[in-house]
Design brief:
Low-confidence stretches: 6-17, 274-291
Oligomer: single chain
Structural class: mainly alpha
Largest sheet: 2 strands, antiparallel
Radius of gyration: 24 Å
Distance between the termini: 42 Å
Helix content: 55-70%
Strand order of the largest sheet: 1-2
Mean pLDDT: 80
Number of helices: 13
Number of strands: 2
Order of helices and strands: HHEHHEHHHHHHHHH
C-alpha cells in the first residue's frame, strides 16, 4: 500500500512543532533567570532606590503625592494634596529614606487640613510619567522600587512575546533571552564614568525611553519574517506597539524606533519584491500585514 506524501509532510510538521515547545519553555525559563539576576544585581547596587537627577526628584515627589491623593483620598485628574509632598520631603530632609516618608504620608487621614489640592506641572512628558508611577504603585505598592520593578516587568513582557513569536528560530530566542544581561552591562559600563549621563536611576524619564528597544527589535524582525501572521501574532504586535508608544511618550529620542521600523519596511519592499496584488504572494510583507 502506497503512503500519501502529504501524510509524511504533516507528520514531520507535527514533530517539528513538538520539538519547538520544549525550546520555547527553555528560553522563557532562561530569560526569567537572567531577569532575576539583573534585578538582584542592580537592586544590590542601590539603583532601585535612587531618585535619579534633581529634576527627577521633583517628579517623584509630585508623582507619589498624585498617586496617594487619587488612590487614598479620591482626587481626580492630576491633582495632589501639597501636604503629602511636604511630609515626604521633610522626612528626607531629616535623614530618613524616601520610603519612610511615603509610610508617614500614608498615615495622614485628612490631607485637606494641610492644604487645598493643587495641579502638578502640566507638560505632557510629566503627565505620562505620573501615569507610569501610578501603575507602579498599583502593582508594587508605595515604594520607590516600584518604578524600577515596573520597568523590568514591561521589558520582561516584551521579551517573552519576542521569544514566543520567533519560537521557530533558536538564535532569535537566545537574542531576546539575553536582553537583561545586555541591560546590566549597559548600566555597569555607564557607571564606570564619574558622572553618569543617563543612569542615575533606570526608572527616571531620561532612561525610560529605552523601553522602546525590545519592541523595535521585535517589529523589525517581524517585517522580515515570511510566515503568515495569525490573530495571536497580531495581538502580540499590538502589545509591543503599545509599549513602544509609551516609550515615545517618555522621550522623543525613542522615535528612533519607528524610524528603524520604517527603514525595515523599505528594505523589505526592495529585497522581497513589490506589493501584493489581488491577494497573490508577490511580497511577504504587504500581504501579511495589510491584506
Amino acid at each position: 500500500m502506497m503512503r500519501n506524501p502529504a501524510d509524511g509532510t504533516r507528520t514531520q510538521a507535527v514533530g517539528a512543532a513538538r520539538k519547538r515547545i520544549p525550546n520555547l519553555f527553555l528560553h522563557w525559563v532562561l530569560a526569567a533567570l537572567f531577569f532575576a539576576f539583573a534585578i538582584s544585581h542592580l537592586d544590590d547596587s542601590g539603583i532601585s532606590q535612587s531618585l535619579g537627577s534633581r529634576n527627577n526628584e521633583h517628579q517623584m515627589f509630585d508623582g507619589f503625592a498624585v498617586a496617594m491623593s487619587r488612590r487614598e483620598h479620591g482626587l481626580r485628574e492630576y491633582l495632589a494634596y501639597p501636604g503629602l509632598f511636604d511630609v515626604v520631603e521633610q522626612v528626607v530632609k531629616d535623614g530618613g529614606t524616601f520610603n519612610e516618608g511615603l509610610e508617614r504620608a500614608l498615615e495622614i487621614t485628612e490631607p485637606r487640613k494641610l492644604g487645598e489640592p493643587r495641579p502638578i506641572r502640566q507638560w505632557f512628558g510629566n503627565l505620562v510619567f505620573q501615569d507610569y508611577l501610578l501603575l507602579s504603585t498599583i502593582i508594587f505598592g508605595y515604594q520607590i522600587e516600584a518604578l524600577f520593578y515596573l520597568y523590568f516587568l514591561l521589558t520582561f513582557i516584551a521579551v517573552l512575546v519576542g521569544i514566543y513569536r520567533f519560537r521557530h528560530d533558536a538564535g532569535l530566542m537566545a537574542l531576546f533571552s539575553f536582553v537583561p544581561i545586555a541591560l546590566v552591562l549597559t548600566v555597569s559600563a555607564t557607571n564606570l564614568f564619574a558622572e553618569p549621563i543617563l543612569l542615575d536611576a533606570i526608572h527616571e524619564m531620561r532612561f525610560l525611553g529605552t523601553l522602546s528597544v525590545v519592541p523595535t527589535l521585535y517589529l523589525c524582525l517581524s517585517i522580515f519574517d515570511r510566515r503568515r501572521i495569525t490573530i495571536v501574532d497580531g495581538l502580540l504586535i499590538v502589545v509591543q506597539s503599545l509599549i513602544l508608544l509609551w516609550a515615545i511618550a517618555f522621550r522623543t529620542s525613542a522615535l528612533l524606533g519607528p524610524a528603524a521600523i520604517l527603514v525595515c519596511v523599505v528594505l523589505a519592499w526592495v529585497l522581497m519584491g513589490s506589493w501584493a496584488v489581488n491577494g497573490k504572494w508577490i511580497s511577504g510583507l504587504p500581504r501579511r500585514i495589510w491584506l
